[in-house]
């Protein structure tokens, strides 16, 4: 199981702790320190599309106009911290966020 996120993200921390407590073997992938390749982004973008970009974040508000109007792939390649978090996958299914629906899938 892989959890994509940032180490400073409170939802990522909560998800990591809860998944570990539930007995899951979770690999944490810091998208800022270990950027995803185009190949890594492809299934995530296919699954979530534009929802993968956190448009409420300060990072998004600080984008220049050209990048803000770009495709999600380009925005995420330039600023991985724009990714809505956490993304959790076991290779067959994906969830975005750590809400009640995501917890129901994994716990």
Give the H and E element order: EHEHHHHEEH
Count the DSSP helices.
6
- Can you tell me the residue ranges where pLDDT is under 50 for at least 5 consecutive residues? none
Strand order of the largest sheet: 2-1-3-4
Question: Into which percent range does the helicity of residues fall?
Answer: 40-55%
The biggest beta sheet reads:
4 strands, mixed
Return Rg in Å. 14 Å
Strand content: 5-15%
**C-alpha termini separation:** 13 Å
Q: Output mean pLDDT.
A: 95
Which class of secondary structure composition applies to the elements?
alpha+beta
| Gross morphology | globular
What multimeric state do the chains show? single chain
Number of strands: 4
Write a structural description.
The chain starts with a strand and ends with a helix. The protein has helices at 10-21, 38-48, 58-61, 65-68, 72-78, 100-106, and strands at residues 2-5, 27-30, 87-89, 94-96. It has 6 helices and 4 strands. A 4-stranded mixed sheet has the order 2-1-3-4, with helices on both faces. The model has no long low-confidence stretch (mean pLDDT 95). By secondary structure, it is of the alpha+beta class. 42% of the residues lie in helices and 13% in strands.
